[in-house]
Amino acid sequence: MSRHARSGSLVIGIAIIVLVAATVLGSGVIARAAAPERPAVAPAGMNQESPASRPLRGFCRCGCSFVPDCNTSADCGGGFCSKAPSCC
Questions:
Q1: Which of helix, strand or coil describes residue 58?
Q2: Alpha-carbon separation of residue 2 from 12, 16, 33, 63 (angstroms)
Q3: 45-72 per-residue burial string, b: 16 or more CB within 10 A, e: under 16
Q4: For 4, which of 20, 39, 44, 65 is 20 to 30 Å away at the CA?
Q5: Rounded to whole angstroms, how far apart are CA atoms 36 and 24?
């Protein structure tokens, strides 16, 4: 094998190694394997309970029910969520 043929093979070999390394690093395989798994944490100020697990404390306006059915006006479809029942 001539000297030029060996240097050409070396260049191709190095190019392949560089491409493989770029592919692995670019896909994040190494980064994901090295990063520790973190538990999901709610942002500060947000309630970590799910809305379904909280007890209902209010009453949708004009609901005429004495059973609490809301916590926020979003629970009433945008209507008012009151602390007391109301009949309209």
A1: strand
A2: 16, 21, 43, 92
A3: eeeeeeeeeeeeebbbbebeeeebebee
A4: 20
A5: 18
Closest by CA to 74, choosing from 86, 88, 56, is: 56
Between these two residues, 72 and 49, which has the higher pLDDT value?
Answer: 72
Considering only CA atoms, which of 31, 37, 87 is closest in space to residue 61?
A: 87
For the chain, how far is it from start to end, CA to CA, in angstroms?
Answer: 97
Average pLDDT over residues 78-87: 92
Supply the pTM of this predicted model: 0.40
